[in-house]
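stage 2 :: seqdesign
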């Protein structure tokens, strides 16, 4: 999963990988939903942390962004 991305990702990489907006990506990181590292002022996300987030969201039935259901 996400093998085409580097092992140590930026928030922009996470945004691209999940197909979400910049604000949403930073919100997920800031809230701690996606674990991350701070290297100086830079935020870095090991790819395995992103995989953990996606797997947890799938198993818990959570949704990363709230959108109206299409029922």
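stage 2 :: out
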């Amino acid at each position: 999963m996400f093998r085409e991305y580097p092992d140590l990702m930026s928030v922009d990489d996470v945004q691209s990988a999940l197909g979400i907006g910049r604000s949403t990506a930073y919100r997920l990181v800031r809230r701690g939903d996606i674990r991350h590292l701070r290297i100086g002022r830079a935020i870095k996300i090991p790819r395995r942390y992103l995989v953990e987030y996606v797997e947890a969201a799938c198993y818990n039935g959570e949704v990363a962004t709230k959108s109206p259901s299409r029922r």
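stage 3 :: structure notes
- The chain is about 45% helix and 15% strand.
- Strands lie at 8-9, 37-39, 42-46.
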